[in-house]
């Protein structure tokens, strides 16, 4: 782990714990910073805060004092989920105090280079796929970031022989200053998270920070089929690696209906790739390009693409029962992600959707409603989904109070040949702590309902 002069003997506030805040506070303390942690969870119910106190870190729990910044902090490291509308964050901005997320700290302490992956959709699949490609080629990759492993904890132990393959959200990227991945990837960009960012411009600007510090020896892989990304790439200093789904090109990586091409030469026939769906083709092109740039072999890439079936909670096949196939796409937290899932599955669909109300438009889903034979709704948005479905001719609309009831109603409205798809188009936080718990609840309910009806 590198030493970081920017934090040595500096007063640092870590705002919000959870996994990333705890790890950042511990590392900052090791680096010689004078660390104070502030978390809303009461101390007696906060094992992370208790452990940090035992290490000698100052801990303030159970509240966020508005005068906290009067202590003269020189840096704030905040949990990515804390919005910039937070009173303490707003005050830090007014005072000119730098605000980081722990991704910045991870980059500064790491002895290993980074590959950074972001995008509105597909970043987890791209990250996981790339990790498998590099791992099977013995490139010593480590996986980190928004995928569930705290980046600074991974970076703390990384060596120059490693490469850290990192999934990055807009929340994380908004809080970086010097972060510079050797390879940066943006899978796609669509309007999202406006409740956090306030404007589409702030959201897009945060995503694009992934390539802002790159130099000519670095690489920027981007979706050339999106004019906004193509325009942004034109101003980047890195070597540009565009990908396109619109047919073979002689440069970089591309795809048509039959093949994936690398620099104009056929790499693999698309029919041999297990990971289905047009939306996943973007992820495959981005991951393949990054693996090749890192020295991966074509043979290994082909082996992975003909064996990799996907990531849990992302169009994950659960089981087949009496001719019905059940898929868990709990990671679909916006309408665009659900649109991608609906595109991937032909035939009649029983759709389970709903969750936290963010007032996102559902218009992306309208063209697919003729194939939705039943919509099972739940959560805060249940009423809005029901109105949308009824207005678009969905024959059956039913509301469920929990996931077990939703699956029971889905099974009751399905027949052999149908796809039962959990793809909520909403965040989970109205009913579940995260999308993983929501997806696990679906898997459990599917297993219970199908076993009970055998």
UniProtKB/TrEMBL annotation:
Which GO BP terms, alphabetically? cell division; cell wall organization; peptidoglycan biosynthetic process; regulation of cell shape
Record's subcellular location: Cytoplasm
Describe the location of the Mur ligase C-terminal domain by residue ranges.
Answer: 313-426
Which terms are listed as keywords in the entry?
ATP-binding, Cell cycle, Cell division, Cell shape, Cell wall biogenesis/degradation, Cytoplasm, Ligase, Nucleotide-binding, Peptidoglycan synthesis
Which reaction(s) does the protein catalyse, per the Swiss-Prot or TrEMBL entry?
Answer: UDP-N-acetyl-alpha-D-muramoyl-L-alanine + D-glutamate + ATP = UDP-N-acetyl-alpha-D-muramoyl-L-alanyl-D-glutamate + ADP + phosphate + H(+)
Top-level taxon of the source organism: Bacteria
Every copy of the Mur ligase central domain together lies at 117-291
* Entry's Gene Ontology cellular component terms: cytoplasm
Pathway annotation from the record: Cell wall biogenesis; peptidoglycan biosynthesis
- Which positions bind ATP? 119-125
**What family name appears in the similarity comment?**
Belongs to the MurCDEF family.
This chain's protein is named: UDP-N-acetylmuramoylalanine--D-glutamate ligase
